[in-house]
Amino acid sequence: MKFVIQRVNHASLSIDRKERAHIEKGLLVFIGISETDTKEIADVMVRKLTHMRIFEDEDGKTNLDLQAVSGNILLVSQFTLYANCKKGNRPSFTHAAKPDLAIPLYEYIIENVRDVFPDVQTGEFGADMKIELLNDGPFTIVLDSEQL
């Protein structure tokens, strides 16, 4: 499982030219689910995400988590995080989970993040989404379950 976490000043997500989600200061999280991922892996990833201290305190040090800054969170499924570009110029996505595994795990992640942040905004699994954001920093972290 991979989370690409971006600290943002704001982000919005549209589907079919209609805004579906909007957050102010917070985290935009792209979620990639592989064919070998489980709820147990999701639990570890959510715990890391919801406690990650990447916001600045009064001294300019990244010591604060999302709750401490009253931030928002936007979760977006993105199977392309499992692109394999070893052969040729066209990425292969064979390691990305199929929808029958990925959808329940994506929903499970959303539910668990909502336990900590009730106002979670989300994209729509499999939809063609347009995302606008203002990255703060820029500050982007890749959280990979294989490296935990």
Protein model, in words:
With 148 residues, the chain is an alpha/beta fold. The protein is 21% helix and 38% strand. The chain is built from 2 helices and 8 strands. The strands form 2 sheets. Strands 1, 2, 3, 6, 7 and 8 form a 6-stranded mixed β-sheet that branches. Helix 1 (39-51) packs parallel to helix 2.
Q: What general form does the structure show? A: globular
Number of DSSP helices? 2
How many DSSP E strands? 8
Helix content: 10-25%
Kindly summarize this structure in a few lines:
This protein is of the alpha/beta class and 148 residues long. Helix content is 21%, strand content 38%. It has two helices and eight strands.
Give the SSE layout:
Layout (H helix, E strand, L loop, with lengths): L1 E14 L2 E6 L2 E7 L6 H13 L3 E2 L5 E3 L7 E6 L21 H18 L4 E2 L6 E16 L4
Parallel strand pairs: 3-6, 6-7
Antiparallel strand pairs: 1-2, 1-3, 1-8, 4-5
Helix pairs in contact: 1-2
State the main characteristics.
148 residues; alpha/beta; six-stranded mixed β-sheet; two-stranded antiparallel sheet; 2 helices; globular
